[in-house]
Known about the structure:
Helix content is 53%, strand content 11%. It is built from 3 helices and 3 strands, in the order H-E-E-E-H-H. Strand 2 and strand 3 form a beta hairpin.
Amino acid sequence: MPVKPSQSEEEYFAREEALKKQKLALEQTKKMLERERRELKDLHFMHCPKCGMDLHAIVFRGVEIDRCFHCHGTWLDAGELEKLAIHEKKQRGAVVRSVLNIFEPEKGQKRK
């Protein structure tokens, strides 16, 4: 005659089965999110965030930057602004000053 498992044994195996299913679901979710992230990157890689047209890598003052020739947007990757700033510091900072002037109010004008 087969021995029926005790209630505590049934609970143990049910818990183990639930944990296995939960772990599998988490792994599937992680794989799905990674796949979606890759697909999103592939969809947007080297496309202008403003107009969606192709970006082209060009070298500007020794730094490779991304340029959209449709809307004329210029996009910098991480660290590229700092590289340009270092280059400009060596060249007396003309471009950096002009960029900073964009964000500073003109003399005699108050910030809103």
